[in-house]
Amino acid sequence: MTQFGKGCHLHLIDGSAFIFRAYHALPPLTRKSDGMPIGAVSGFCNMLQKYVEDNAGPDAPTHVAVIFDKGSHTFRNDLYDQYKANREAMPEDLRPQIPLTREATIAFNIACKETEGYEADDIIATLACQAREAGGRVTIISSDKDLMQLVGDGVEMFDAMKNRRIDREGVMEKFGVAPDRVVDVQALAGDSVDNVPGAPGIGIKTAALLINEYGSLEELLDRAEEIKQPKRRQTLIDKREQIELSKKLVQLDCNTPLDYTLDDLEVREPDPDTILGFLSKMEFRSLTKRIADSLGADAPVIAETAPQAAPEAAAAPEFPAIDPESYTWVKTAEDLAPFIAEAHERGWVAVDTETTGLNEMACDLVGVSLCTTAGKACYIPLAHRSAATDDLFGSDDLAEGQIPMQEALDLLKPLLEDPAVMKIGQNMKYDLKVLARYGINIAPFDDTMLMSYAMHGGLHGHGMDTLSERYLSHEPIPIKSLLGSGKSMITFDRVPVADAVKYAAEDADITLRLWQIFKPQLSPKKVTRVYEGLERPLVPVLAQMEMAGVEVDRATLSRMSSAFAQKMAALEAEIHELAGETFNVGSPKQLGEILFDKMSLPGGKKGKTGAYATGADVLEDLATEHDLPGRVLDWRQLSKLKSTYTDALQEHINKDTGRVHTSYVISGAVTGRLSSTDPNLQNIPIRSEEGRRIREAFVAPEGKTLVALDYSQIELRILAHMADIGSLKQAFRDGQDIHAMTASEMFNVPMEDMTPEIRRQAKAINFGVIYGISGFGLARNLRIPRGEAQGFIDRYFERFPGIRDYMDDTVAFAKEHLRVETLFGRVINTPEIAAKGPRAGFAKRAAINAPIQGTAADIIRRAMVRMPDAIDGLPAKMLLQVHDELLFEVETGAEDDLIKAAKSVMEGAAEPVVKLDVPLVVDAGMGRNWAEAH
DNA sequence: TGATTCACG
DNA sequence: GACGTACGTGAATCAG
């Protein structure tokens, strides 16, 4: 072993630069056998190989290392929280390749070095300084200008791309100053890429001029008064602090603590088995062969997988059988360490949390399971109770074999928040919300439920059981088998830990397997953008909204409840009087028998089950014949309002927060809409005056205001755009009353003679079109004869022939592809379109409606994803989404600022991906409660 | 558990 | 020619 010193030559390779160059230079290659993205790894290996070949000559290095960044938080972030803040997130298909580039470096038998919390540049600086002091030469393989400050005294750079050495002269050329003054120039000029502020208005040229004139930055700042240009002088005086901070940011640290020395970096011969093993594992055929030749070894045979017939047919990875007995019960920190280490090494980990209930806002964490490799999963029990010896209900003592909660969380937090490790979950919103309450903010993450939703929306549900059975042919352990059901149901913390291990670890195992199947399919199925841009980023936004909740005034609801109960009792007595007997008014069956058998009213129609239909439309028709149906309608309305709203809503007021927290289901609707549950806050009454008053109970707290913003006619606007209806588009551009305009066009009535009745009919037709109009449906809606309704539709299509074309084209597309798409590329599968019989009609109308409803849903999703940044700094919170409306809570006084910011996000939400021919218009309202805000 | 009804966009 | 139909949701209730 040679002691590093005079005559030694150290090469330092900027690994991250290699990776990004490789990633961007190559098309997104995937490994044939499992679809794993490996383009960047391939490029990286080729660059390493080229490097090795090019440096075999007489000037070969004696020592070499590839240096990588590790962790995203460095001392520079502590100096300046905006450091590198506008850097784009790592592309999704690159992330899993990062650990493989480390593996590749090691396979080449080159020292692979990284230090947590330090940028590669600082490690390079430290090693270069050490080598220089030892009297050796250094070549930094990089073209990064941030490293140029190190050049000089035996240190040079080499731009592998341009095949060019960069020495003192090269640096002078670039910065106009000697290497030792480069940081001064950078401090002044700033750097938009790393978000180093610098001095506004001063670029590299000016900076070099000033430094050369004054000798150093410090001198310049001290003598700033002498500068002749007034603006420049003022900048340097005003921004002194910012410039000094910038210098600290660009100055590389030569004193990074390292747990190795230069001697450890000595050049080593590659081991043929190791490198060829790695390359064949990656399935790099030509590179494997080339390196085998150069090493004089036999190239291993790489199994030829059958070329993929269709992108959809990407072969599933080979998995070992799912075996609940194989999972690890993590009892101590030592048990946990290998799982955390492997997660770091691989760059991903599947995570699942177990809790005492399904309500994330009102349940406790019981355990966490992890899985890094299919078949290798663990469960970390945290709050299981021990089985009691003496009584039936178990004790409150903690069970044996658990790491203390806080200790385990402290171990998990760095992993779950590590930007270099992808966290994989099934319905991550749940885990995100649970762990947020324990101070852990999971990022970055993938969600198998949302991947399935993006690819398989309309085909089947996206719950884990469904996905496991469909894609893994495995039926997971039912939760019922652990918790039981009904009255005797227990909570998860009462489940014996040994049983919990099997169940919980299996969930993580299944989730990881699903991810490995789904992830490579996103791109061939062309839903990467939808998944990455619309589904996944919505998760933290919704989590915030749900955790914020909305204030609901219990007293108001309670008062309404009593009033409703009184009125109902009165109505019920009347109804019984009219019927001549007492019966359950809430029973459609009993009501039908009273109306049609006992009273022999006309129009009794029995449905599939043999019961009379007693829906609102039937009762409305009967109301002309008799008083009883009208009373029942009134009673039903009150009953609905009381049971679903004034009573149930009170149950949902959270004990801790005093607010109501709904839960949105991202994959709830096939069209891309959200759905809202527990409670559903997307169907709070508004249409009837009586129901509308329920919104008075949704209030702003003291000192705050509710602001509601809703898209005006968004679906009709989208229809006008998609079907390309010139007159409709023009009407929207002119801000006309669209229903009146439609009526005028259809019935040849001048706008000034428009009557509310004609307008109402046109409005019904406009909506009918969005739903896939039929004569029957319109007739029923407008209560006109079917022939007349058909006549309206015919005339509509005559005036707007593009609508008919749109409908025909959409159905034809659906028939051909068994799916339709929104303007943003969301896929809505429509397998039923191939059905025969009445189901075909349903499928057709659904196919016509889906792109319109779905595009509207995409637009508001985009607005929501952008909203947190747009209202950052305003004292406002986004609380609710109701399909085309967003509800905010804002400190009184800041309403106008909020409306301005939020409105502009909403109105511009389609751009830049989609340029609509019609403007999107958002109406705003505000008030102390939701009724006023509307 | 399924059907019915009705609240919303 | 007959059939059955507006699109998308969730919750409460009855009845089996």
From TrEMBL:
In this chain the 3'-5' exonuclease domain maps to 327-523
Q: Name one GO molecular function term.
A: DNA-directed DNA polymerase activity
Q: What is its EC number?
A: 2.7.7.7
Q: Which reaction does it catalyse?
A: DNA(n) + a 2'-deoxyribonucleoside 5'-triphosphate = DNA(n+1) + diphosphate
* Residues annotated as domain DNA-directed DNA polymerase family A palm: 691-894
Which keywords annotate this record?
DNA damage, DNA repair, DNA replication, DNA-binding, DNA-directed DNA polymerase, Exonuclease, Hydrolase, Nuclease, Nucleotidyltransferase, Transferase
Keyword DNA-binding among record annotations: yes
Mind telling me which CDD domains this protein's record contains?
DNA_pol_A_pol_I_C (cd08637), DNA_polA_I_Ecoli_like_exo (cd06139), H3TH_53EXO (cd09898), PIN_53EXO (cd09859)
One GO BP annotation here?
double-strand break repair
Q: Which Gene3D superfamilies match?
A: 3.30.70.370, 5' to 3' exonuclease, C-terminal subdomain, 5'-nuclease, Ribonuclease H-like superfamily/Ribonuclease H, Taq DNA Polymerase, Chain T, domain 4
The portions of this protein that span the membrane are none
The family note in this entry says: Belongs to the DNA polymerase type-A family.
User: What is known about what this protein does?
Assistant: In addition to polymerase activity, this DNA polymerase exhibits 3'-5' and 5'-3' exonuclease activity.
Q: Which NCBIfam families would you find in this protein's record? A: pola (TIGR00593), PRK05755.1 (NF004397)
Task: Name the chain's protein.
Answer: DNA polymerase I
Designated gene of the protein: polA
